[in-house]
Amino acid sequence: MSIKNISKFTLILFVFLSINSFANTNETHEENIESTTIVDEKASLKKEIKETIDHHLMDSYDFAITHGVSFPLPVILIDGGLHIFSSSKLTNHDTHEPTIVESNGNYYKLFHGKIYKTDAAGTINLDEHHHATNEKPFDISITKNVFTIILMSLFLFFLFKGMAKKYKTNSLPKGAGRFLEPIVLFVRDEIAIPNIGEKHYKKYMNYLLTIFFFIWFLNLAGMTPFGIGVTNNIAVTFSLAMLTFLITQFTGKKTYWLHLFDPLGHSMPWVAKIPLYLLLVPIEILGLFVKPFSLMIRLYANMTAGHVVLMSIIGLIFVFKNIIASTAFPVLTLALSALELLVAALQAYIFTMLSALYFGTAAEEHH
Amino acid sequence: MEKLISDFSSGLFIWQTLVFVVLIFLLRKFAWKPILNSVESREEGIKKALEQAEEAKKEMASLKSSNEALLNQAREERDIMLKEARDVKDKLIADAKTTANVEAEKIIAAAKESIHHEKMAAITELKNEVATLSIQIAEKILKEELASADKQKAIIDNVVNEINLN
């Protein structure tokens, strides 16, 4: 597929996205009109918009393709043994109310999107902040986000495997490779080599390429109307940042550790260094953890903010409910969606770039 | 922040880490290695080809300059040879001219000599012939004149008359 075709495809996807999100919210809005009376329509509408946004950003146990259309995913709980059941059991099909699930003698109930262990009657004990105090089972369900991660990983695997296969017969890229090869080369020539150096960059290439395409494609998937924003989940960004952190520490050479625990080197006698190091070494060690923490927060916050802004603007259409708002805000949504597409690539680039930078300091040799 | 921590889904974290690490290893084996290797070998090939082209260019340039030098040398040699040839030719012509002149003079001199000899011989012969003819004519005239007694007499008379004894 040529670049032109891909850009066309993105444009179509993106128009589809705007229309679909628009339609979704419209539906909920109409339901809303039916349900609310005169009292405080606006406040309730705002509340609903907020809930829709929250719901959109949240992980869930089933995969909602569009409003009302979803398919169940397996729920896996570890709670004195393995409990596996379909997520369709968690909610009543007609009333959409949570139901009590019995599994191997234990009872579970969904409360605010999380599974809690309950008694047979399904009582949820609340504290003064309306938080459930029930025990939470260890939950390793294949949720919507996990499902998306697996799906995207398979997609990436087959995409790049196919691309690699084409090189066997021809040294020039073919098909999707024509679009992807420049990006692979960009990661190598603009991210890996300048930050890590010609000598050591090769062993980090696998990680950098994988993380770049993984984040980028998941960010793009988050732009689709399925509400599968995986990268706006802190558990995901934490995992990615943690891997960068671990790789940095495990590939750290002598210079890296010396820089950490002996930052001043031979510039002064060791007696003079002791009081300074009482201050410097803790700062250096703090910096060690601040780096991946900033990686984690940056990606999470950027993607979350993008979604919140986009959905809020769509929500504004229903708050204002006039001709100007209903023409101006979709246009604004379109413009911001374009910006979000850029941000999707940009955040992937920044994450990869900073990872490469940290690897560079780890791989650096004494000079 | 508190909400972030309480919302942290350890299940998602575990799955994400697991799937992602597996993805890294799978892609390393099936995608990145072959892709990067073939791209690198291609780049190497391009680099080599460019270097070779550059070398060929240099060789061409050096060949061209050596060709030019050779050509110049050849030109000079040709000029020298031409000059030599011209000199030889001039010398040859001059020599030939002098020899020819000398020869010609010799021949002319010999010719003149022989002509002179021939002339002298011819003159002598002619003299002899004339003498003989004159004698014969004189004999015939004498015979004719002295054929009759009258004529003899007349002659004598004539001679006598001429001998005028003054």
Number of helices of chain B: 3
What string, H for helix and E for strand, traces the elements of chain B in order? HHH
Strands of the largest sheet of chain A, in order across it?
4-3-8
Strand-residue fraction of chain B? under 5%
Please give the radius of gyration of chain B in angstroms: 65 Å
Structure class of chain A:
mainly alpha
Described by strand count, sense and barrel closure, the largest sheet of chain B is:
none
Helix content percent band of chain A: 55-70%
Largest sheet, strands/sense/barrel of chain A: 3 strands, antiparallel
Write down the domain tally of chain B.
Answer: 1
Oligomer: heterodimer
Tell me which protein chains meet in the greatest interface and how many residues each side has: A-B, 44 and 34 residues
The 3D shape of chain A can be described as globular
Which percent range describes the beta-strand content of chain A? 5-15%
Q: Taking Cα atoms only, what radius of gyration of chain A do you get, to the nearest Å?
A: 25 Å
Explain what the structure shows.
The complex is a heterodimer of chains A (367) and B (166). Chain A is mainly α and 367 residues long. Chain A is built from nine helices and eight strands. Chain B is an all-alpha fold. The longest helix of chain B is centred in the middle third of the chain and has 136 residues, at 10-145. In chain B, 7% of the residues are buried. Classes of the chains: A mainly alpha (367), B mainly alpha (166). At the A-B interface, strand 8, helix 3, helix 4, helix 5 and helix 6 of A face helix 1 and helix 2 of B.
The gist of it:
Chain A has 367 residues and is mainly alpha-helical. Chain A is 64% helix and 10% strand.
